[in-house]
Amino acid sequence: MPPILQCLQQSTTTMSRRKILLLVLGCSTISLLIHHWSQLSWYPKLFPLSCPPLRESPPRAKHMSVAFLKTHKTAGTTVQNILFRFAERHNLTVALPHPSCEHQFCYPRNFSAHFVHPATRPPHMLASHLRFDRAELERLMPSDTVYVTILREPAAMFESLFSYYNQYCPAFRRVPNASLEAFLRTPEAYYRPGEHFAMFAHNTLAYDLGGDNERSPRDDAAYLAGLIRQVEEVFSLVMIAEYFDESLVLLRRLLAWDLDDVLYAKLNARAATSRLATIPEALARAARTWNALDAGLYDHFNATFWRRVARAGRACVEREARELREARQRLLRRCFGDEPVLRPAAQIRTKQLQPWQPSRKVDIMGYDLPGGGAGPTTEACLKLAMPEVQYSNYLLRKQKRRGGVRSRPEPVLDNPPPRPIRALPRVSQGT
Ligand SMILES: Nc1ncnc2c1ncn2[C@@H]1O[C@H](COP(=O)(O)OS(=O)(=O)O)[C@@H](OP(=O)(O)O)[C@H]1O
After folding, report:
1. Distance separating alpha carbons of residues 321 and 221, to the nearest angstrom
2. Half-sphere exposure of residue 26: CA atoms within 13 angstroms, side-chain side
3. Distance 72 CA to ligand 1 centre (A)
4. Residues annotated as region Disordered (predicted)?
5. Which of 38, 70, 354, 415 has the fewest CB atoms within 10 Å around its CB?
6. Is the distance from the beta carbon of residue 75 to the nearest atom of ligand 1 less than 6 Å?
């Protein structure tokens, strides 16, 4: 017998049959893996090396029917302005509120298609404040409409609501020294469910989404789960205000729009003097406890947002968000001068760019055109910084003209809504 066979015979006697079987199994698995290695694409899937191209090929047509649920104090005016400008560039019809509803669709009432000005129907787009009602919106909008909305971290959102609506929401007006801390210490002492504008003081996100803002997830967890399910059923994208640029990247991908279509100027921002620089941790916790339904919504959709970013490739989304920021800075410099700054309304000389001021105590900022608009400028720059009220009025006039509606008295709604916030008189800023 050759020496090699002798050696094998010896080793088989010393190794158990079981060990040999394991060895054979291990070797065949490794060889199988090596054989298929070239066909396995784990590496690119785990670490995408490059972004899918900005322009898809073959290019998908830009999606033209969009309904944006503009929730309150969530950067919605900035998104609305992006949509208004897109609609104008593509000659689309924007659904606008009937004048009796001012610039909101008769909020806080449930949305009804009757609130839409006849000259703005049938619409491709809708982006003004309303309380969500699925059936009514589906009655109005084309069947291929993409629904999107935006949420903001509830403590930051509540601080903004408390400051902006301080003079109008009775629950806030009752608080001594307009103290957010005092309100959040004992909200029940100031809050009366069902009274005028109560929804600005309790779970505003849930209310805007058509939910019952008085429900507590602590007593009724199923209610929050149900509301989340309803939102997921309708909305193709829930943006997050804290990650505004990343949200726009997802939006433009969803709608097959160009990056240029989502460039923006920040609108409706309070001056630093009108806001808390930081919200102390204890106050933030109290705001989240009081607005527990909103906190539940936000936590859920913040998590789904990041899962979506991961699916698109986080590095790609970040890279595109960076490109967006750079392009945005170039545009702002081109429009508003080398050092584009947000200014208080009193310093804005171009009347069409002066933002509405909710009260003497709160400064809402805006941009101004060089030379107060007297210098060379473009219509695109004017629209970029145009506040909601002026832009809505302008679009309504334009669409009425396009539809051949002459200036005749507006039809009166059967049951006019309470005077909404935007109808309140503008407080003089001393200019
Ligand atoms: N791009 C961007 N990113 C992050 N945050 C932004 C952005 N644009 C606007 N904002 C902030 O959003 C707040 C205004 O929200 P809205 O426009 O929805 O308010 S409103 O309900 O229409 O009155 C307002 O928040 P506060 O300043 O805290 O009040 C704005 O500063």
Report:
1. 36
2. 6
3. 9
4. 400-431
5. 38
6. yes
pTM of the model: 0.85
Q: Ligand 1 within 6 A of 362 CB? A: no
For ligand 1, mutation pick of 81, 197, 268, 328 (most atoms within 8 Å of CB): 268
Closest CA to 385 of 346, 348, 430: 348
Q: Which amino acid is at 231?
A: V
Tens digit of each residue's pLDDT, the chain (431 residues):
555 445 445 554 445 666 656 665 665 555 444 444 433 333 333 434 446 665 566 788 999 999 999 999 999 999 999 999 999 999 999 999 999 998 999 999 999 999 999 999 999 999 999 999 999 999 999 999 999 999 999 999 999 999 999 999 999 999 999 999 999 999 999 999 999 999 999 999 999 999 999 999 998 999 999 999 999 999 999 999 999 999 999 999 999 999 999 999 999 999 999 999 899 999 999 999 999 999 999 999 999 999 999 999 999 999 999 999 999 999 999 999 888 999 999 999 999 999 999 988 899 999 999 877 766 678 999 999 999 999 999 999 999 998 876 555 555 555 544 444 553 333 333 32
Cβ–ligand 1 distance for 68 under 6 Å, the answer no
Q: Whose C-alpha lies nearest to ligand 1, atom 31?
A: 269
How far is Cα of residue 401 from the mean position of the Cα atoms in its chain? Answer: 31
Task: Say how many Å lie between the CA of residue 391 and the centre of ligand 1.
Answer: 17
